[in-house]
Batch of 2 targets.
Target 1
Amino acid sequence: MHEVEIAVVGAGPAGLSAAIEAARAGAKVLLLDENRKPGGQLFKQIHKFFGSKAHYAAVRGIDIGCRLLDEAQESGVETWLNIPVWGLFGNHTLAVIRDGRAQTVRAKKIILATGASENALSFPGWTLPGVMTAGAAQTMMNIHRVLPGQRVLMVGAGNIGLIVSYQLLQAGGEVVAVIEAMDQIGGYAVHAAKIRRAGVPILVSHTIREAHGREQVEAATIVQVDEQMQPIPGTERRLGVDTVCLAVGLTPLAELGWMAGCGFAYIPDLGGFVPLHDENMETTLPGLYVAGDITGIEEANSAMEEGRLAGLAAAEALGYLREEAISRKAEVRQRLDSLRLGPFGEKRQRAKERLLGECRGQLAKQEPPDVSKSCQDLTRSRITVVTGVLSLEELAGSPGYPSQERLRSGKVAVIECMQQIPCDPCVGACPRGAISIAPTITDLPVLDAEKCNGCGLCLPACPGLAIFLVDLTFSPTETLVAFPYEYLPLPKVGTEVEAVDREGHVVARGRVVRVQNPPRYDRTPVISIAIPKEFAQVVRSIKRSGKR
Amino acid sequence: MIEDKVLCRCEEVLESEIREAIQAGARTLHGVKIRTRAGMGLCQGQTCQRLIARILAEETGQSPAEILPATYRPPCRPINLSFLSGVEG
Ligand SMILES: Cc1cc2nc3c(=O)[nH]c(=O)nc-3n(C[C@H](O)[C@H](O)[C@H](O)COP(=O)(O)OP(=O)(O)OC[C@H]3O[C@@H](n4cnc5c(N)ncnc54)[C@H](O)[C@@H]3O)c2cc1C
Ligand code: SF4
Ligand code: SF4
Ligand code: FES
């Protein structure tokens, strides 16, 4: 038997953060994960993350994972990898497999940070090879470097479906369509906009009816659904695809919690059954803590904060930190609250409050959303995001858009980010202080176009790839448009390209004027093209040249 | 009626078999599991439990909150039984 003060199960962002905080506080910490590599979901995330500076915003998921690993090592966390935890007995004993033998680990405090599992969807043909979850496709592409298929149908337009679609395009695949059963996308508009301008259609109010094929997927039939989610006869369409990716939600992975016998609540907004926990992330079993997706599906940022909170609280309970604990925990809670603002976070904030309420044994009354508290200016974000493409009128009214006079006077940034999402790297990226997001991180970016000189540094910093440069004064007949472009091969300066609008339609011919890809852009190249003047507000990218 | 389909892929249990089990009296995921083996496979129900829960809700009129996961017993990960021969206390 191995004895430690604190054992953390799961080395994703939540578990790593918990282990780091607890070890820094002085506790002897053991971190366990069943994978050979720590990092959990982070190591599959090759895109830049949202969030604020405190959350490594605009850093790629994989790089966040590496930094956390270094910190864990520096702070003296002992890490056991490739070790599945297969049992939790009471609140202090873990059963593991190590060196080919079943062993037990006894810990004074245990933190469960086991993440979530992906939901399946059943339809005729769903057991055919070629039907897989979006996470599996992501693992194939980003870890094993194998393209899951050439022609993909993505089912689900939440952030995961949108992001994995984008990564499939980057890997050289074709996404034939993204379908979504709801009447609008569930993910962020900026993520949708990336694949829309690459020409991927997003069909809302659609579901999959059947996957066809003998040995593997050869086609799929999709169908439109009505408001009751019932298929509308006669709207079936057959698409030639070799892969069907399912991105239909996640379920907290809490089997160890069930085994130990801690209290649970069923909260659909958090993904199903979640372990009850208090303000310290402690479950109904003393000494057993939870953090991250296991306590409700959120994001890496909130997972890290919850991990920190659990780590601090467990260390405090063991007598470390003393007075310092109170202020440190308060800081973390404040950051967590700020991540749960805005139309996307609000639901989770209320769900979390309910969880805390139930944990206190006093079922919190379901209160109507307090709009004043979370959204300074909700009307501004009430845009019609159906598939992520904003109309020119919507954009013109946005605080990130320069005025017509300013546009006429020369090169300037154009910010096409109109949803209250927890994100702000654009602010820090601008050396002239021309972008502000206040008072909270979910407010919309406001451009002070008079301060902006069109340097373009904010373009690669935006994880939503939602900032562009427009220079109406480029030449008497041409406008210069610059945009981020994360596909290979990069176009060459001087070549002619097909310029596309926000929906990926070719609308004009353009000429590549500049290709910038310095190290500080961190692999988000910026392409500048010259196009006929009248397309200044229409063109936002170019057609990808061939594949791969 | 859409054609029948496999719901638990590990144990190859059809949707119709799950519905039959419920009609024969299963009221919980555990009940469905012991009657049909659905959820007893390699993935320990990670793939199929939610799908089966939905059918249970549909057939019995229970709310999703009432349908608890089938009892979790160690091991929750596939392990080689020979590992267990030397369990220390
Ligand atoms: C495609 C995709 C894109 C995303 N994009 C973003 C984004 O842009 N921004 C953002 O903030 N978030 C994003 N997320 C969400 C983010 O990745 C997750 O919210 C976050 O990883 C959750 O962290 P976690 O530590 O709770 O769980 P995980 O990262 O899932 O880690 C859990 C770990 O525990 C291990 N484990 C589980 N059970 C056991 C056991 N019994 N024994 C041993 N080990 C076990 C698992 O193997 C895993 O390594 C994205 C997620 C996906 C899938
Ligand atoms: S283009 Fe340069 S000056 Fe203008 S907002 Fe972006 S970073 Fe600031
Ligand atoms: S414009 Fe700013 S707030 Fe919007 S996605 Fe880009 S970096 Fe985030
Ligand atoms: S799909 Fe049912 S046990 Fe794996």
Target 2
Amino acid sequence: MEKDAPVRRRSSGDGADVIATSRRLNDSKTQSQYEPYKQAEWGFVNHWYPAVFSEELEEDQVEGVQICGIPIVLRRVNGRVYALKDRCIHRGVRMSAKPMCFNKETISCWYHGFTFNLETGNLDTIVGNPDDKLIGTTGVTPYPTEEKCGIVFVFVREDDFPLDEVPPLAHDLPLAFPDNSERFPHPLWPAAPHILHEDAVGLGIHRTGESNWRVACENGFDNAHILIHQDNMIVQSNNWVLPLGIRPVSNDCITTFEDDNGPSGLMQWLFSDRWEPILENETLGIKVNGVNGRPYRTSFYLPGVLLVENWPEEYIAQYEWYVPITDDTYEYWEVLVKRCPTEEEREQFKYRYKTVLEPMALRGFNNCDLYARESMQDFYGDGSGWNDEQLVDTDVSPITWRKLASRCNRGIARPGVGVTGSVKASSLRLRDVSEGSPSRYFVRKVDF
Amino acid sequence: MSAVQSYEVSVQFSDGDIAVFPVTSNETILEGALKADVPILNQCQSGSCGSCVAVLEDGEATPLATQAGCLLDSELAEGRRLLCSARAFSDCSFQVDYTTSAGAATPAAANVFIDEIAWLSSDVVRLGVELAEGDWADFSPGQYMRINIPNTEIYRSYSMSSSPEQLPKLEFLVRVIPGGLFSEFLSTKARVDDILKLEGPYGSFFWRENFRRSKHLLIAGGTGLAPLLSILDQIRAAPGKKPDITLSFGCASDKTFFGADILDLRKAWMPTLETRLTVDDAGESWSGLIGNPLQAISTDDIESDAVAYVCGPPGLVNSSKKVLSDFGMSESRIFAERFLPE
Ligand SMILES: Cc1cc2nc3c(=O)[nH]c(=O)nc-3n(C[C@H](O)[C@H](O)[C@H](O)COP(=O)(O)OP(=O)(O)OC[C@H]3O[C@@H](n4cnc5c(N)ncnc54)[C@H](O)[C@@H]3O)c2cc1C
Ligand code: FES
Ligand code: FES
Ligand SMILES: [Fe+2]
């Protein structure tokens, strides 16, 4: 430090386009119970997330995705899916942009040939420099994978999260039924199918939403938002009549749980006397006569997994994930799960899915949710919304979730650095958008 | 007067690295180490801060007669030595419980701007600062800085209550002592946006990552809570399973008790944290325990692999070390910082 140099206040540093790289644990004076959640702009790491559908990754296929600001390359070899950090240690190129594999054990970077072991991530060789001293001393982070119910799950971890502490996939999935039917009885519908049931079939879609992942996931179990679904085709064609809203009327309307040997989450006791459907608003002179909907129940789990039991039809459950890509994009996963012990039942489910359930439920009904979340993004996108929102009693659900998530997450993702979306208006992002192909969840393959 | 002798001294770091260097009979062991660039933690170089402590494994090394030193007789008997205040009388070997890289972070000077002066109780202030443009000060959670009293050459030591994750912001918890120099400055003169000079980081009291899976016992008296808060936030931010943590925290009286809200938040965020709150002197409305924070700990709290971090007034720290080792804890797993006046 020079003696005479003037001492200046730190300018805030983050230009409008650049994300601050420091993660503040409790910087604001408005410290609250869910401060850690407010800091999780880029998501929670050290959790299991869906990465691709099984059918999106054929034998030997290579794809790149980004989760919680971490680029990940996937390759299927002999049926098994391997996942590595998709950022070459040499010059940061994404291996997935131009897949190059010389054998079944490795993936090579197409730029200068750094070659990484699929299992360990180690730098096994360099194509044109096989005696270099760097070989064997470094590598990229490998990520554990699991494939269940037609979905490839990846354990998205910090580089130094110990592999021997990786929890089972079930710890990041919804509760299973009937195992939990006594704890959370469901007299109005049969036990919900679970991703891990042997005979479970999962059919669904995933697409990119333009909002922060937290704004997205809070919509999934927000009981006051049925208003947006009044006019949906699935509602009207079934002659369902929805209430105007649903209010909590008992302080045990939500049960949270932190199971040592299972997921952390919250269960909403919908369709019980702990929640009251609102049928009339006198101020507005609106009245609903004879509610006629289908009973359902939502529960929500870390790191952001929704289970809707008995939805959209009996014997089916809807699962959703809101997988953070950056701090302003997330991958919206909607999967319908049904137990189909026979080939015939599988075929029937697929047919029903294609003809009715995907168009009417996953798209028709849930498109409203996607728009609703994006409509909140400007308010929450710069962080001000978290302080300026004025919540009411029906918001007990998101508040309970925020507290639970602050407590039970396995790590707050660091803001993405040197990855897609860390510079908001990068020339690449702008070019892709102007060409009508915004580069989002999947890596855009280079083509030469 | 006998001729100057030279001895060979070796220091083993916790990562297994061993440094060997010569020390003459007319210099302290720390002086010899620093000449040879061996990264021994140190600060006051006068036997009062305790940073330079090492365990004598072999050989003869004796404290200087001219310096009192902050070690207890029992600690001396165990072989602990303050290297800044000890001479070698033969070849010796020592062990320190930190790695070579811990001692290598050389203290630097930095300017900070005051962001916040908040009274948490009638005698505790939270001082929030931000490093000035171009200045930086890395530290390990648990360590302290020396803060200069403006327009004097006087420095006082304060432990960060914030974690390194919050840099460039730093936070301190300062107990305001009537008539104390820094205390007076902080309570009467300091204003938001003022510039302070500080130096650091210092101290061998910091979170040991190699014990991160062990049961943690944290014992704090008064503003001794500060470095333990930093450690708590670091444990929360570190990847991997969180250990079970028991934090016992006490103040002299319920009237000066502070930090209940800070600890409630930590408990809400950390399922594995349990807190015990104590005061020596309680009025009607006090709902916590009565006594000092050490009295709230029993043998039931000690698991075989437990580590303890103790911080606060010298009396509390000294008795904690004694009681915890009586409970069967190994000295090498008890880390302590005494807030000694200077
Ligand atoms: C490694 C280390 C870390 C420290 N960290 C912190 C911290 O995080 N927070 C904190 O509040 N303090 C901490 N201290 C103590 C701090 O450095 C000062 O000693 C203390 O704040 C008094 O400074 P002062 O200038 O206000 O009083 P001084 O001018 O130094 O002292 C004035 C008078 O008060 C007496 N006195 C000094 N300290 C005490 C005391 N604790 N109790 C009763 N009388 C006392 C002195 O003997 C003197 O008579 C730490 C000390 C050390 C060695
Ligand atoms: S950037 Fe990958 S090998 Fe050079
Ligand atoms: S440096 Fe030895 S006690 Fe301070
Ligand atoms: Fe919805």
